[in-house]
Every structure is written in structure tokens, then in C-alpha cells.
Write a structure and sequence with these properties.
Structural class: mainly alpha
Largest sheet: 2 strands, antiparallel
Radius of gyration: 16 Å
Number of strands: 2
Number of helices: 8
Shape: globular
Helix content: 40-55%
């Protein structure tokens, strides 16, 4: 539980730096205002407003992990050096949906650790990351560790989201056929 308290304290710290005293708690988000946090986070990541990873000030499209699903998918694919085709973006956003995690800055629910300020999200070892960049880097690190070549090969093709989903299902990643089910329901 102290991990959650640490994350909530960090959220309040960010909010207070950019928006003054915390606003009234929103019970649907566990006490933190999602809009305020997202806006503060965008400012914290790049106060100048210049373009780059995680600099959007829009809060539309935020998923349970607190990131814009499409932006994160594009950033993930770019960091991997993979084509950012509509099929690849669809596959990565479906993967995020299949995971359905609230782990901070970790929409694919990796257990990859080694980043300052990370906390444990659950008993399986999924991590909460202190920053967008750390969450992105951790997911890139794990997907390129040599155990997920089939996923990388499907992404390199960039032509069929279901091929990526099947590669995820056939890999050691814990999502199983979840991505296939999400894509089939779209």
C-alpha cells in the first residue's frame, strides 16, 4: 500500500507545482483529479511546450495507465524503429486495451524494472513508473530482450494488426489471446 501512497504523493507534488493547491478530490479517480494530473504532467515533461514525447496537453484519449493510447503507441513504435502504420498503431492500442492496467505510464503492464522512482503495481511485479519516458523505455527494453522476436517481426511488416495479435498470443508475454479478442470486437 505504501507504493500507492507514494504515487499519490507524487501526483499531488506535480499538481501543486503547476496549479497551486490541490483541487477537490474526485472520487471516481481515487482522490486525484485526472484532468489536473494530466495537464500538470504534460507541463512537467516539457514546460516549453516544444514537440516531443509526452508533450501533448490534451487529456482526451487517456487510458487507465494515464497515457494517450495512440500517442504512446506511436512513441513506442518510433522507439523500436518500427513503422508507424495504421495497422501497427491499431495493434498496440488494442494491446493496451487488452492489458487494461492502471499501472502508471505502463500500458502494456511490463514487470521490467530498474528505473528511479518505480513502484510495484501488483503482486505479479507489474511496475508503476515515475515518468512517461521511463515507462516507454522499460517496455522497449523488455520487448527487445530476445524473447519477443515474433512480435517484432510482425510489427516490422506493419500490415496486419491481427498478425501482431497472434504473435503476442504465441509469445511469453502474459496477455495471451487478449489482443485478438479486442481486435475481433472492433
Amino acid at each position: 500500500m505504501s507504493g500507492i501512497a507514494d504515487v499519490q504523493a507524487r501526483i499531488q507534488d506535480i499538481v501543486s507545482r503547476f496549479e497551486g493547491p490541490p483541487k477537490a478530490a474526485d472520487s471516481s479517480t481515487g482522490g486525484a483529479s485526472t484532468t489536473d494530473f494530466a495537464s500538470a504532467l504534460a507541463k512537467a515533461q516539457d514546460p516549453s511546450g516544444a514537440s516531443g514525447i509526452g508533450t501533448s496537453t490534451s487529456t482526451s484519449g487517456l487510458n487507465r495507465a494515464g497515457v494517450n493510447s495512440v500517442q504512446w503507441a506511436n512513441d513506442f513504435l518510433n522507439a523500436l524503429g518500427m513503422p508507424t502504420t495504421p495497422s501497427n498503431v491499431q495493434a498496440i492500442t488494442a494491446w493496451q486495451q487488452a492489458e487494461g492496467t492502471k499501472a502508471a505510464f505502463n500500458p502494456l503492464a511490463t514487470t521490467q524494472g530498474g528505473y528511479a522512482g518505480e513502484t510495484q503495481f501488483n503482486s505479479v511485479g507489474v511496475k508503476n513508473f515515475a515518468s512517461y519516458q521511463d515507462g516507454l523505455a522499460a517496455n522497449v527494453k523488455v520487448i527487445t530482450n530476445g524473447r519477443y522476436g515474433n512480435i517484432l517481426a510482425a510489427l516490422q511488416q506493419g500490415t496486419n494488426a491481427m498478425d501482431v495479435a497472434k504473435a503476442i498470443a504465441a509469445s511469453p508475454w502474459g496477455t495471451g489471446t487478449g489482443v485478438e479478442r479486442v481486435l475481433s470486437s472492433q
